């Protein structure tokens, strides 16, 4: 058998160290699927829907730092990947969709060829930074490399490659593939000098750390800077884990909390690393200007100064920039102790106040998960009541790449993202989910069962879209289309090969969680929220509504 275009793709993935890909087989990708399995160096996880598979590739990429791959079919299969690519783009995640296309003799002819999708490149370009579509077998290797090089240069981003089916069968020669070098992401000397001077001239500093620190594998460098300056670290939700949240200098994901924001107002310098300062619903948080002057470090120059005024810009990989700054700070005055103490008191007060809003039962549920889950296990969330009220802030995170959630704010990606995370880490992974969002991808229970993925699925079941229900009541005094009948999730899971149980109190939850931890594969816990003590909602309603 000759070496084909499909073999080139399978070989390229193996050379890049891709251990798992997610996919759905089709007439327009069968050669690639066959080539991957013949080579035997990459395992294929057969998902039940392309959107879920793309989310799973995203979770895999975020947890491992490796390339996440979804193999889809042209046309309807690829259109299903767009939502997953949208989330990956929003979350700066390296997710690659490899898809088929009509054979070159029919491409662009408008002959209603099966799965014809002549605007597929344009569609994918709305959610990918780089899309390639070779029209001759001689172009395939270069197209593959071009997408990979883009995804791994600068800010992480998704990409896509469509390959006409005849090119997948076509004979070609083997090629060598590699990731691009990190060179070119180092900071300019004048930028580092200006940052060092600004830091030395300040005594009340704070650090705001985002997901860019994790993407750059720069947690040690960030912590070294914080310890050198005796400086508090405030994280974004995507930056959680850059420093252990039981570390004395960690404030946590509370920058947007009024209590913390007020406490840091005396700062004379904000050091922002790898964060976009994302704006919330209804424009929330845009007015929360970082206190004092600001140094902003980001690999993407387009993000520097976009949301807030910057006094020193450092465009560079976060790791390289922090290494250079640390080297330049041989002698520096540590933070003002009284300034720090105000922040520590505010941090402890905010944590206590937020915990008190959870009522009698939910703190015990949260504490039970944290006590039983290893520090290096992944804790994933969907957009749900429990995530908003305790999962995104109060549940302690201790290591990089162990906290994931939909950056775009979408409902539903949490379950498939956690599935990919569990495949990538090989460790017990917990997903907290609402019942409404879980139904988006409930069929992936079959995937979890098939591969015995070590995933604990906690469905916080309030028979509807709880967050939206609360917002509707606050804004309109009534609710619309947010109430559902209660689904028997345990029976659903059992039908697909996943064991589980419904729980109605904390003791039953703890017992079920112990059972889940003791097993090797997936386990579902259906948490009937109507039997638990209620928690207060902590989402800001729209003003004057």
Features:
545 residues; alpha/beta; Rossmann fold; six-stranded parallel sheet; 39% helix; 15% strand; disordered C terminus
CATH class of the largest domain, named Alpha Beta
Can you tell me the CATH architecture of the largest domain? 3-Layer(aba) Sandwich
Supply Rg.
Answer: 24 Å
> Strand fraction band?
15-25%
The outline comes out as: globular
Distance between the termini: 68 Å
The low-confidence parts are 540-545
What is the average of the pLDDT values? 92
How many domains comprise the coordinates?
3
Structure, explained:
The chain has about 550 residues and is of the alpha/beta class. The protein has helices spanning about 5-15, 30-40, 50-65, 75-90, 120-125, 140-150, 165-170, 190-200, 210-215, 220-230, 260-265, 320-330, 335-355, 360-370, 385-390, 415-425, 435-440, 445-450, 465-475, 490-495, 505-520; strands at about 20-25, 45, 70, 95-100, 130, 160-165, 205-210, 235, 250, 270-275, 295-300, 310-315, 380, 405, 430-435, 455-460, 500-505, 525-530. The protein has three domains: about 5-170, Rossmann fold, CATH 3.40.50; about 190-345, 3-Layer(aba) Sandwich (Rossmann fold), CATH 3.40.50; about 355-530, Rossmann fold (3-Layer(aba) Sandwich). Helix content is about 40%, strand content about 15%. Helix 8 crosses helix 12 (about 320-330).
Q: How would you summarize this macromolecular structure in one to three sentences?
A:
The protein is α/β, with parallel strands linked by helices and 545 residues long. The chain is 39% helix and 15% strand.
């Amino acid at each position: 058998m000759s070496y084909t275009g499909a073999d080139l793709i399978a070989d390229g993935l193996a050379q890049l160290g891709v251990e798992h890909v997610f996919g759905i087989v089709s007439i327009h990708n069968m050669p690639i699927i066959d080539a991957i399995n013949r080579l035997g160096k990459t395992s294929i996880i057969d998902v039940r829907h392309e959107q879920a598979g793309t989310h799973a590739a995203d979770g895999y990429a975020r947890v491992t730092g490796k390339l996440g791959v979804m193999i889809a079919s042209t046309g309807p299969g690829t259109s299903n990947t767009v939502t997953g690519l949208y989330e990956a783009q929003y979350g700066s995640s390296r997710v690659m969709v490899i898809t088929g296309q009509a054979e070159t003799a029919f491409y662009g002819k408008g002959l209603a060829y099966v799965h014809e999708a002549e605007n597929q490149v344009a569609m994918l370009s709305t959610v990918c930074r780089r899309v390639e579509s070779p029209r001759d077998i001689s172009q395939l290797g270069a197209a593959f490399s071009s997408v990979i090089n883009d995804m791994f240069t600068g800010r992480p981003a998704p990409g896509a490659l469509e390959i006409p089916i005849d090119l997948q069968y076509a004979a070609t020669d083997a090629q060598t593939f590699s990731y691009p070098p990190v060179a070119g992401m180092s900071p300019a000397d004048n930028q580092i000098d200006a940052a060092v001077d600004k830091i030395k001239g300040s005594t009340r500093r704070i650090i705001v750390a985002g997901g860019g620190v994790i993407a750059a594998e720069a947690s040690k460098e960030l912590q070294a800077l914080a310890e050198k300056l005796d400086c508090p670290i405030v994280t974004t939700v995507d930056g959680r884990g850059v420093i252990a949240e039981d570390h004395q200098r960690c404030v946590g994901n509370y920058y947007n909390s009024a209590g913390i924001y007020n406490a840091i107002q005396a700062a004379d310098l904000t050091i922002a690393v790898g964060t976009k300062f994302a704006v919330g619903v209804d424009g929330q948080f845009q007015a929360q200007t970082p206190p004092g002057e600001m140094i902003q470090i980001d690999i993407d120059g387009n993000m520097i100064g976009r949301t807030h005024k910057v006094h020193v810009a450092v465009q560079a990989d976060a790791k390289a920039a922090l290494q250079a700054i640390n080297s330049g700070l041989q002698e520096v005055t540590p933070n003002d102790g009284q300034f720090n103490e105000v922040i520590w008191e505010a941090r402890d007060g905010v944590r206590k106040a937020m915990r008190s809003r959870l009522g009698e039962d939910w703190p015990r549920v949260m504490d039970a998960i944290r006590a039983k889950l290893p520090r290096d296990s992944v804790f994933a969330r969907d957009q749900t009541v429990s995530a908003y009220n305790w999962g995104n802030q109060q549940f302690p995170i201790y290591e990089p790449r162990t906290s994931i959630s939909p950056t775009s704010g979408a409902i539903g990606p949490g379950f498939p993202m956690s599935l990919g995370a569990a495949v990538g880490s090989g460790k017990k992974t917990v997903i907290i989910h609402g019942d409404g969002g879980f139904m988006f991808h409930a069929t992936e229970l079959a995937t979890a069962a098939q591969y015995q993925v070590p995933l604990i699925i906690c469905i916080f079941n309030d028979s509807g879209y709880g967050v939206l229900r609360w917002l509707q009541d606050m804004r309109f005094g009534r609710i619309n289309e947010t109430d559902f009948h209660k689904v028997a999730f345990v029976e659903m899971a059992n039908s697909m090969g996943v064991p589980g149980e419904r729980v109605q109190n904390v003791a039953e939850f703890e017992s079920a969680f112990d059972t889940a931890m003791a097993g090797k594969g997936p386990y579902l816990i259906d948490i009937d929220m109507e039997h638990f003590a209620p928690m207060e909602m902590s989402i800001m309603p729209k003003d004057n509504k």
